[in-house]
Amino acid sequence: MIWAAFLALLSHWRHRPLQLVTLIIGITLATALWSGVQAINAEARASYARAASILDQNGLPQLLPKNGDTIPMAVYAKLRRAGWSVSPVIEGDYRFGPFRVRLIGIEPLTMPIENRIFAPSDSSELVDFISKKGLLVVSPATAARLKDVAGMPLKIYEDIPDDAAFTDIGAADRLLNRKGSLSRIVMATGQRPDLPALETVAPELISQSADDRPDMARLTDSFHLNLTAFGFLAFVVGLFIVYSATGLSFQQRRATFRTLRSLGVSLQSMTAMLLVEIMLFALISGVLGVLIGYFLASALLPGVAATLRGLYGASVPGSLSFRPEWWLAGMAMALAGTALSSFQSLWRVRRMPILAAAQPRAWAGMSAITLRLQALAGAILFGISVFLAFAGSGLASGFGVLGALLLASAFLLPAFLSRSLRFAEGRSSDALAVWFWADTRLQLPGLSLALMALLLSLAVNIGVGTMVSSFRLTFLGWLDQRLVAELYVTARDEAEAARLREWLPKHSDAVLPIWSVEGNVLGDRLQIFGVADHPTYRDHWPLLNGLPDVWNRVAQGDGALVNEQLWRVKGVQPGQTISLSDGWTVTVVGIYSDYGNPKGQAIVGLDALVQHYPNLAKLRYGIRIDPALAPDLKLQILREFGLPESNVIDQASLKRQSQAVFEQTFAVTGALNVLTLAVAGFAMFASLLTLSGIRLPQLAPVWAMGVRRRDLALLEIARTLALWCATFIAAIPVGLALAWVLLAIVNVEAFGWRLPMMIFPADWLWLGAVAFVASVLSVLLPVMRLATVNPADLLRVFANER
Amino acid sequence: MTLAGATRNEMLLSLSNIVKSYQTAEGGIEILRGVDLDLAAAESVALAGESGSGKSTLLHLAGGLDRPDSGIILMNGQDVGALDDSGRARYRRREVGLVFQQFNLIPSLNVAANISFHAKLAGRFDVDWERELVDRLGLGDLLTRYPEQLSGGQQQRVAIGRTLAARPPLVLADEPTGNLDEATGDAVLDLMLSLSRSAGSALLLVTHSTRLAGKLDRKVFLRGGKIVP
Ligand SMILES: Nc1ncnc2c1ncn2[C@@H]1O[C@H](COP(=O)(O)OP(=O)(O)OP(=O)(O)O)[C@@H](O)[C@H]1O
Ligand SMILES: [Mg+2]
Fold first, then answer.
1. pLDDT digits (tens, 9 = 90+) for A320-375
2. Three-state secondary structure along B131-159?
3. Quick count: other Cβ atoms within 10 Å of Cβ A783?
4. Which conformational region is residue A557 in: left (phi greater than 0), alpha (psi within -120 to 50 degrees), or beta?
5. Per the confidence metrics, is the pTM higher than 0.80?
6. What is the pLDDT of residue A354?
7. Spatial CB neighbours of A433, under 8 Å, sequence gap ≥ 6
8. Interchain contact, A795 vs B66, CB within 8 Å
């Protein structure tokens, strides 16, 4: 009996395959986008955790210098003598040919057991590690990159993050030219209780526990929040598709429900059957969704990895590992989301009296009061958004502005559309036109959720698109200013660098050393570059502001330039003095823009830098020469010095590389943009399909009064286009506001740069064209059904027995 | 009626030998088996018959909503059955007005817009006539309301107003009072009769009630797929 009843309920779907497909696609899309984004986030977070624990020995307390950035070897020796169980670390960025890696020098014998990622398996490996020749322990990907340029034996360990290399502390000291000064000291957790206090043994050090240190996970929070927001938006839109599909299927089966009830199926078992049915669909589509999500994440992850490397300097592998907990979470979301979105329909079934006449009613009714409440909520949210934009501070408040703005616009949309339609109705005198606008308004409640989704995805498209395009234009202009040298040469070692310094001036117009060190400035590790006194810089360097006489003061050595990040985030002002290392203070004389750099940076006169860091690596040079002669010079250098091709790069290809990195950085955003738009389009399709099922009674009288089916169908298309068009127009100011918030608030808080906002109406036209095509597609099927509807179906509307 | 050839041309509507069948799972069933019916201009005729006898079907054919399998429908001498889709749409717009048991008002339009809708489509909108209709139907206070805010009797009055505002030569009404109580039904029907006389429209009205049928010029029955007097 129950089984027969269940089959009777299921038979509904056999007659309405399209509805079934809509439902399945809705759940699948929601689950896929959500779990895909979650997979990316999980992968990135796992890799930060791994990197933190491995690279920084993050689980362990550490000793750092109070001032400056290095610890003399003697201090370490004092601690050991006093009985402390500690181990030294020397680390820094090192360039092997064109590849920069994080070099971490450790002492394998004293490194606390709990943090030995790779234990030399036997004494011969240990001997290799600490041998004079040195050994680099790297990940497989890094090994592949370094194998020709390292000039040292490589050993592969799976667990090590990409772009990092472990080596013996002696080798690191040699490569990084540290002359025995340490970067930090790692402490074992179980220290002897009777040790002398740190203040007495080494007052120049402070101890820091793992929690005090900012880690990648926290820095990149905003980026992941962004992804999550995209995923969530898509999820909600997907659920809305489910909501409308189940609503319709329940509506259409009311007669069946009644019959089953009157045949003695209890309310309990009928609700249970419907629940089982829904969960069955959720299960199938959940599995599909998680699978698609996995492929989506695999496809997007390389782009995400590039973004994270470019914007934050975080290293994330480009491939996805398989996590069972993520599968489970995806399935749970599918089930919970489906249950949530079909709750209302189930509830209605439970409350449906057996005998009430079946009255076809819109599946999502909305009264004027709802409309007014929504508009009120929208206005309040808008107020909150404006308030936060001008009174708030911090990244969280920036995201608050974004969220409130988007929600507000979504809530205000139905009221806006209703107003516009009423206005158009008042302006029309033709009977059919009046009916057209009035009838469009009648459809609003059923379409408003889909239209909100559409508004959000269009606005996000415009907003993010404006940001990326502004960024691109600024970035390219800035690149032109920054990359003025015609050739960039990197020597393999100091001896070769010395020969280059001899040879190059005779063959070019100017040779500009590009030398840098890492220093501790205002509590952060950052790069300090030295620049030669040359018109190249005076004429081209992208200064945001500066004191008079900037370049002379930099050349004299008492002035420094800092990048925008330091200025905005640390509040460094021109005229302020900052300390660049022990006992070296300079006056900030100017601020320059430095897009795409996650960290602070400072520029000083070359002579001053060499004076304070006599041992700095002097390997890189920019060369000025008549651009026409540059290719020949490149060949000449390659021949003369036998350098690998990758060590001599011309300006054009460097720009190309930078642009490629830039494009990849935003590829993920672009892909998510397109996906949310697609989901919104599909939601619109689902709603229109649903509406077309209950529209006949509204259209039949008009048809009876002499309007052809063909004309009615055309009007239906026009109706959809009008709604899309109005929504698109509403999306433009919302999108621009969004772009402004991203550029002026979120980016500044997250990255420390502020970009000028530029407007690209051509992009909107393009988006509008895409939206137009999508709208036509979304309405095509429902309208084709209408245009070919059997007159008998229309007549049935007038049949007396209903 | 004996001088068929002579009178037929003066008739407003003339149905001859109409056959209509529906396809069902069990095969075709013939509902109308050779219906002959004539209506003079401004004449009012009651059509009665058992439930399922095909009254609504006949009305739909006369209204150009559907096509007969065979037979000829002449309206002012023009063959309605031969019209294509657009031709029949124009026919519905200009020649006939329909009133249904379910009222079938346009839910998105208010009363005033509903009333003028058909007249405007037909290109026969006349402010004075419409004002008179509104007055006589007692709809003056309801003009800005929407159909869902009206009672059944009020809705049917609006439907009648909508049809007669267009002054169609022929009004087809399918049990217009079937959903109303007796007193309201009587009042609505009286209004409809007098108004269609004022408009100069002929009226073909389906009703089960002999009492109501008695108010019309003539009364015919549909039985066994044919018209019997
Ligand atoms: N589209 C259709 N397909 C199949 N059969 C139909 C269709 N429309 C009507 N019928 C059948 O044709 C017959 C006549 O229907 P019709 O609606 O014309 O009857 P009626 O005289 O108006 O009845 P009532 O007084 O109950 O309104 C009925 O038996 C009905 O079941
Ligand atoms: Mg009938």
1. 776 787 788 888 888 988 888 888 778 877 776 655 433 433 333 446 777 888 89
2. HHHHHHHCCHHHCCCCHHHCCHHHHHHHH
3. 21
4. left
5. no
6. 57
7. none
8. yes
Backbone angles phi and psi of A66, in degrees to 5: -70, -45
Residues 424 through 443 of chain A touching chain B, CB cutoff 8 Å = 430-432, 434-435, 438-439, 441-442
Separation between Cα atoms, residue A503 and residue A511, nearest integer Å: 10
Residue carrying structure tokens 């075709």:
B28
- ipTM value: 0.89
- Residues 6 or more apart whose CB falls under 8 angstroms from that of A156 comprise A137, A138, A139, A140, A143
Minimum CA distance residue for ligand 1 atom 1: A792
In the block, tokens 């005033």 appear at: B112
Q: In angstroms, rounded to a whole number, what is the distance separating the alpha carbons of residues A484 and A477? A: 12
- Give the nearest ligand 1 atom to B60 CA: 18
Question: What would the pLDDT profile of A764-799 be if each residue is shown by its tens digit?
Answer: 888 888 888 888 888 888 888 888 887 778 887 776
Q: Which residue has the higher pLDDT, A481 or B160?
A: B160
The two three-digit tokens of residue A240, written as one number:
């809305």
3-state secondary structure of A498: helix
Q: Is the CB of B20 under 6 A from ligand 1?
A: no
Structure tokens belonging to residue A96: 């092997």
Nearest to B106 among A702, A792, A794 (CB): A702
Give the count of beta carbons closer than 10 Å to the beta carbon of residue A776.
14
Print the SS3 string covering A387-445.
HHHHHCCCHHHHHHHHHHHHHHHHHHHHHHHHHHHHHHHHHCCCHHHHHHHHHHHHHHH
State how far residue A38 is from chain B, nearest Cα, in angstroms.
45
Of A690, A764, A773, whose CA–CA distance to A728 is shortest? Answer: A764
CA atoms A231, A236, A237, A241: torsion sign: positive
Ligand 1 pocket mutation, candidates B18, B19, B22, criterion most atoms within 8 A of CB: B22
Q: Taking CA A517 as the corner, what is the angle to CA A511 and CA A521, rounded to the nearest 5 degrees?
A: 130
**Distance (Å) from the alpha carbon of B37 to chain A's nearest alpha carbon:** 22
User: Rounded CA gap, A538 and A521, in Å?
Assistant: 25
> Which letter, b or e, does each residue of A440-463 get, where b requires 16 or more Cβ atoms within 10 Å of its Cβ?
bbbbbbbbbbbbbbbbbbbbbbbb
Residues for chain B: how many in total?
Answer: 229
Alpha-carbon distance of A574 to A559, in angstroms, equals: 10
Measured on CA atoms in the order A66, A70, A73, A74, is the torsion positive or negative? negative
CATH of domain B43-67+84-228: 3.40.50.300
Q: How far is the CA of B195 from the centre of ligand 1 (A)?
A: 29
How many residues would you count in chain A? Answer: 802
Smallest CA–CA distance, residue B32 to chain A, in Å, is: 16
Nearest to A51 by CA among A113, A127, A139, A122: A139
Q: Does A360 touch chain B (CB under 8 A)?
A: no
Q: Which residue does chain B place closest to A430, by CA atoms?
A: B120
* Alpha carbon distance A450, A417 (integer Å): 13
Residue A596 · residue A663 · CB < 8 Å? no
B138 contacts B193 by C-beta, under 8 angstroms: no
- The single-letter DSSP state of residue A119 is -
